[in-house]
Amino acid sequence: MGAPLRGRPLSAPRAQAARLGWRPRPPRLLPWAPALTLGVLIGPVLAGLAGAAAPAFGWFPPLGGDTVTLAPFRALLAWPGFAASLRATLVSAALSTALSLALALLIVAAWGGTRGFRLIERALSPLLSTPHAAAAFGLAFLIAPSGWAARALSPWATGWTTAPDVLLIGDPWALSLAAGLVTKEVPFLLLMILAALPQADAARGALLARALGYGRVWGWLKVVLPRVYPQIRLPVYAVLAYSASTVDMAVILGPTAPPPLAVQITLWTRDPDLSMRFVAAAGAMLLLAVTLGLLGAWRLGELAAARLGRAWVEGGGRGRRADGALRAAAGAAAALTSGAVFAGLAGLAVWSVAGLWTFPDFWPRSFRLDAWARAAPGLGAAAGETALIGVVAVLVALALTLGCLEAEHRHQLGRPRRSLWLLYLPLVVPNVAFLTGLQTLALAAGLDGGRWAVAAAHVVFVTPYVFLSLADPWRAWDARAGLAAAALGAGPDRVLWAVRLPMLLRPVLTAAAVGFAVSVGQYLPTLLIGAGRVATLTTEAVTLASGGDRRLIGVYALTQAAAACVGFALALAIPAVAFRDRRGLRG
Amino acid sequence: MRLAVLAAAATLAAPAFASPDPADWPAVLAEARGQTVYWHAWGGSPEVNDYIAWVGREMAARHGVRVEHVKVADISETVSRVLAEKGAGRETGGAVDLMWINGENFAAMKRNDLLFGPWAEATPNWALVDVEGVPGVRFDFTVPTEGLESPWGKAQIVFFHDAARMPEPPRSMIALLATAEANPGRFAYPAPPDFTGTTFLKQALLELVEDAAPLFGPAEEADFAGTTAPLWAFLDALHPHLWRRGAAWPASGPQLRSMMADGEIDLAFSFNPNEAALAIATGLLPDTVRAYVFDGGSIGNVHFVAIPFNASAKAGAMATADFLLSPEAQARKADPAVWGDGPVIAVDALPPEDRALFDAIDFGVGALGPADLGPALPEPHPSWVRLLEAEWARRYGAGR
After folding, report:
1. In this structure, is residue B369 part of a structural domain?
2. Hey, are the CB atoms on B83 and A274 less than 8 Å from each other?
3. Same structural domain for residues B240 and B342?
4. φ and ψ at A169, to 5 degrees?
5. Claim to verify: residue B217 and residue B164 sit in the same structural domain
6. Which is deepest, A75, A158, A241, B34, by most CB within 10 Å?
7. Is the CB of B54 inside 8 Å of chain A's CB atoms?
8. Is B12 in CB contact (< 8 Å) with chain A?
């Protein structure tokens, strides 16, 4: 390794030391990165889980629970709404995940690489930035019998002067909740697929398939999908687990009597009758089991689909006739899912400046700015706090993730996925199952009540998403580039900084943006670890939303979306600027 | 019970109980100066938030106390917080100094020794409290407060209707049933355990039972099935005529107001007598909406502030609670343009210059003044709530 090839000129003392044949050996921290990351993520989750498992079995001395008993589980099963609640959870989670995945794949298969697809890509950032609750609220305002769609047609076409009494939002089978989840999960899965595509050599695969006479959609599904799916498998699992445990969408779109399991658990943790905390803990354990069951069932479905899919691929059908219909369907799906979110955001924007706005008026009768004026002083502070916490959490998460991935690469830590799947524990374990326990841990350690404690808690939730977004592109990186660099004399560090990171800048920034959006959206961890004293855009939004004033809901939802959107915009803009003269790196 | 509280308090850090002593008020104020009081209070109402901000400014100017409003979506989050602190062994230096509370949450915190005190009946302004006229100031949902919480305001269930769509609103539960039958799908109440929904059940129960006496004692000692039978018969008859035929439910009280503006319902109710007036003034409801009360009276209750057992700024919290009872603070709060929350002090017994503050309040169109509210029915014992909610879930909350 010749000195001229080293990246930085050596400082005088170090250069002298090098001439003398002595090289400073930095402590080898990298091999410890996976263990450190696992500790940072798993520790809090396991401690939190233990904190929830104990009361589930009757153990919580502050409330007089000092015997181990199955009574909380018996009370849970005896709850009259149990079956219907479980059904709502299962239906909304399984349906929304399957539908989201199918639509996202169809959209990429049908439109990937076309000019129309640019439009979809550009729409992703605002779609991903819209908080789940805001998307749900917007959708509800669109499709409710008194919503915007009905107002557009009333009373001139429908004759309605008051809203018709039709059950759309909050149906017992949770179909409207599933629809709401789809509008948010399709963009997320699209982003994950897009990040995976370059490493799956998708463009050449699709070209080859079409040269062999396959239709666009059939060719993509038969040639590219088998290489892409293993890379997006974990994001799909995360979607499934999230859908099963979502509270913020379910309280707006889900059924009410009984609500889905996650909402009911939240209600129990809020019950003034403190003995219901035991039932809530039992419910959280059950929700964890339900989530694991769903994931297991999904895995079995994958195996079945792989078997059937192989036969389908080997069948050799070219599917050229199907292209037109499938492309139209994919286009409609993209337009509908994104249109629902954008129209919902527009509805929120109008609400934020609305005066009196009653059914069936399409526009408010008057406009006023007092919601913005009232919120303005608090907004700045909350936005600053949100940004600070988000940036710190994302930087830590990126450092941990890159440390893990690079350690795995350099030290050949065996089959990496075996232990590192544990990183996804915070995504799979429902929030309600471990956050209370985590709060107790933070309290016992005296680590709560401040901004930095909140940022540390966010790291637990942000890191899995950063890892999720980055791991597969990172692992799929063509190592020959590194080999070439090493042959030219670059050491592992130089390969990392000068070759690998620049080549992977786009997925790294995408991962950071996803992580930032996750941090922006955190409510319970911010509340519980911050003792309520750390006011972010999301905590302000949730407390104000409890008063039901749609103008304030609009103000905060838009601000939240804007905050998250800045991250995505940067993730798109930086590679475009940095690689303006390197087409292959712009991805 | 009181002995238990005292014993529990005594076994904790002794100085935390001995001081501050509200009997030595100058010492309390001296200790309060420079403290920061983290006041956990529901943050869903911009009007209430503004009022609390005003309290903060006044406390800073008068007593050098910094008041930080910790906005919560539901005060049970704060109860959980105090409980978690107890579980983690944090006996002093707690994160919560003052909390807005009443009813079941108070009963639960009192039962589990999570409150500091007694202190509330030893503050200077306690002398102004209308103990005779508002029995609820010492009995929170029938549970004796025993100085563990200081009254702040009083609320009462009022109904509101859109006169343009429903000119003749019902004035009793029986009339409500007839109205619902004649106007199917135009009335809704939030699903219990939302407290507005549960209050609807209690209001109906109080009107429908033959003998209300058992409701003011522990439910376990009463014939629950027999006492509540008329309520379930009433609800069985009502539900087919509710919004969505009872297949979907509003999630909260504030949602009722949005539903009325959306033309989904014509009749709603609220725990804030001036919610409708405030909503009309801010353009959330059309000016055809009118508030009124049932002829036989409606459930009223008092809300309080309490200090958790491990609060960090107890002196500052006490000073704040005392200021909340001052004629100036109570009169400002009663103004419908500010909040419209009823006073808990005896206004008639005030010296003329203080009484003038109340006389100057303009109750305007749509707001209900003290004279319009009619008799306030007392809340049943909190033990009824759990049983009512469980039975409601069994009958109507199991899904279809």
Report:
1. no
2. yes
3. no
4. -85, 135
5. yes
6. A241
7. no
8. no
Torsions phi, psi for B133 (to 5 deg) = -75, -30
Q: Where are any strands of DSSP class E within A351-437? A: none
Alpha-carbon span B191 to A81, nearest angstrom: 13
Reported confidence tier of residue B225, pLDDT bands at 50, 70, 90:
very high
Could you tell me if residue A27 is inside a domain? no
B22 lies in the same domain as B145: yes
* Residue B372 in domain: no
Decide if B399 and A79 are in contact by the 8 Å CB cutoff.
no
Asked whether the beta carbons of residue B112 and residue A63 sit closer than 8 angstroms, the reply is: yes
pLDDT at B50 over 90: yes
DSSP state of B242: S
- Tell if the CB–CB gap between B76 and A270 is shorter than 8 Å: yes
| Chain B positions in Cβ-Cβ contact with residue A370 (cut-off 8 Å) | 282
Other CB atoms within 10 A of residue B331 CB: 22
Reported as a pLDDT band with limits 50, 70 and 90, residue B320 is very high
Sign of the C-alpha dihedral, residues B249, B253, B254, B256?
positive
Average pLDDT, chain A: 87
The number of C-alpha atoms within 13 Å of A118 and in the hemisphere containing its C-beta is 2
Nearest CA in chain A to B263: A162
CB < 8 Å to B76, chain A: 269-272
**Is residue B229 domain-shared with residue B294, that is, in the same domain?**
yes
- Residue A479: count other Cβ atoms within 10 Å of its Cβ: 13
Report which DSSP code applies to B129. B
What stretch of H or E contains A66?
strand A65-66
As beta bridge partners, residue A60 has A65
Number of domains in chain A: 1
Instruction: List phi, psi (to 5°) of B342.
Output: -65, 145
For range B326-345, the mean pLDDT: 93
Instruction: Kindly report the nearest CA distance between residue A270 and chain B, in angstroms.
Output: 5
ipTM of the complex, rounded to two decimals: 0.88
- Would the CB atoms of B193 and A271 count as touching at under 8 Å? yes
Burial class (CB in 10 A: 0-12, 13-18, 19+), A112: buried
Percent pLDDT > 90 in chain B is: 75
| pLDDT at res. B366 | 66
Mean pLDDT of B290-308: 94
Residue range(s) defining the domain that contains residue B137: 2-153+302-364
CB-defined contacts A:B, below 8 A: 206
**What CA–CA distance (Å, rounded) separates A537 from A141?**
22
Domain check: are B176 and B262 in the same one? yes
**Residue range(s) defining the domain that contains residue A291:** 78-331
CATH number at residue B334: 3.40.190.10
Of A170, A439, A544, the CB nearest to B43: A544
Helices (H), A316-356: 322-352
B381 close to A (CB below 8 A): no
Q: Do B22 and B142 belong together in one domain?
A: yes
Tokens representing B21? Answer: 């002593």
Report which residue type is found at A324. G
Residues B392 and B271 in one domain: yes
Query: Residue A201 is encoded by which pair of tokens?
Result: 């050599």
pLDDT < 50: residue spans in chain A: 1-11, 14, 17-18, 21
The verdict on B79 touching A (C-beta cutoff 8 Å) is yes
Q: Could you list the beta-strand ranges (E) of chain B.
A: 36-42, 66-72, 98-101, 139-140, 143-144, 149-156, 158-162, 267-270, 289-292, 298-306, 376-377
Residue B188 CA: distances (Å) to CA of A424, B210, B233, B267: 42, 25, 17, 8
- Residue A10 gets which letter from DSSP? P
Q: How far is B338 from chain A (nearest CA, A)?
A: 14
A3 belongs to a structural domain: no
Residues 108-137 of B with CB under 8 A from A: 108, 112
In the block, tokens 């209707």 appear at B161
Tell whether A84 lies on the interface with B, counting CB pairs under 8 A. Answer: yes
